[in-house]
Amino acid sequence: MTPQDPKLNSADREEKKRLAESEKRSELLSGAIRAIRKHGPEASMTEIAREAGFSKPVFYDYFGDKSGLAAALTDRLLGNLEMTFNVLLDGTHSARDAVHSAIDIFVSFALKEPQLYRFLVRGATSPNVVATLPSLMPPIAEVIVRYLEEQLSEAGRETDSAETMAVAILGMVFSTTEWWLSVRHYVPENYVEHLTDLVCGGLAGAGISSAS
Predict the structure, then answer these.
(1) Chunked mean pLDDT (size 10), the chain, 212 residues
(2) Distance of alpha carbon 194 from its chain centroid, rounded?
(3) 193, part of any domain
(4) 3-state DSSP call for residue 146?
């Protein structure tokens, strides 16, 4: 056991411990990223732990299971999306422009990191979509819900469907983009347009104009 530094008070020792835990968590996530890039989205916890240089129990202590690991990786890899979505959905862009830009962000990430994208999507949709999708990207889902509530309210519609619509949109974009990565029937620009048309068509049916 390492003796405590007598020069540190209890608050300093707690801060030092917190920083050490944060660094260890970062090492675990870096190892997971390397393993997923190397072994693909089906990488086992054994492979992930081996790549990170830690035991499986350590991963389970920090993340619980693969869904927890997927959520932690999302926070690390896509953490800037909350800010991006807040800007896109601040009411200064048309609904179509906002939807198109948001989808393009996901597609661009999927093209850059296909193995990681697949891992995150499968971590979000298995085994229980209702339980895991909101926990994977709650900040983004919340931003979309707020935006849809504002748009529905302006259109004189009830806003209780906003959460369902937000989760449906995210689920569609996640799963369809995973499919597109495998088949590549369309160039990225056309694929983003197709998804944008579909989402905006749904929004129009709910009373939200894509030109608003």
Answers:
(1) 58 64 90 93 90 90 86 77 71 82 87 88 55 53 85 90 89 87 87 93 86 56
(2) 21
(3) yes
(4) helix
